[in-house]
Every structure is written in structure tokens, then in C-alpha cells.
Specification:
By secondary structure, this protein is mainly alpha-helical. The chain has one domain. It is 41% helix and 0% strand. The chain is elongated. The chain starts with 6 loop residues before the first helix and ends in a 21-residue tail after the last helix.
């Protein structure tokens, strides 16, 4: 997931091993789409892909580091849980954080 003034060139750089550190370590499998947007759109798309594929398997936008910090990972878990009305602490959809029995 990324942004560029010249997407075709940037994709070629990634495929040639001259892209981001994350895609050097974990090569991109495919290009899903190329669309106009701003950094807010990019970050929202990154979070949607993280929800679908897992935080550990997606990088881009504000989350481009190979290894995310513990704080970033915790914030992402909270955001992704909130987006589907799940408990912010444990992720269950059967209750909210005020009723969660899991230790904080």
C-alpha cells in the first residue's frame, strides 16, 4: 500500500527490489488497484487491508515500518475493534470494554 506521483514507476521499483524496506523483505504479490486520493485515504485503506489480512501482513501510509511499535500495534487493534463495535480490550463482539472480564 503506498502513494506516488508516478505509480507505475514506483511499482517497478518495488518489483526490482528498490522499494520500501518492507517490500524488500516481503515482496508485494499483486497490484490490486491504482486510484487517486490523499494520505488520509491511504491510511484508511491500509487499516481496511489490515482488518482483512492482519496487522502483521500489511504496511503503508503512516504504518510503513517493517516492525511496528507496540504502541502503534495497540492503537491499530483498538481502531479496528472500534470499527466493528467489538470490545476494545479483547475484541469480542459479545460485550464492550466496560463489561470485559479480561485484565487490562
Amino acid at each position: 500500500m503506498g502513494s506516488s506521483a508516478d505509480p507505475e514507476k514506483r511499482i517497478a521499483e518495488h518489483r526490482a527490489g528498490r522499494g520500501a524496506a518492507y517490500t524488500k523483505r516481503y515482496p508485494a504479490e499483486s497490484v490490486v488497484s491504482i486510484s487517486p486520493g490523499d494520505r488520509f485515504d491511504e491510511d484508511a485503506a491500509v487499516r481496511r487491508l489490515m482488518r482483512e489480512h492482519g496487522i502483521e501482513f500489511v504496511r503503508g501510509g503512516a504504518y510503513s515500518q517493517v516492525k511496528l511499535t507496540a504502541d502503534d500495534t495497540a492503537a491499530l487493534h483498538r481502531e479496528l475493534r472500534a470499527a466493528v463495535d467489538a470490545c476494545l480490550r479483547c475484541g469480542s463482539r459479545d460485550h464492550f470494554v466496560a463489561s470485559c472480564g479480561q485484565a487490562a
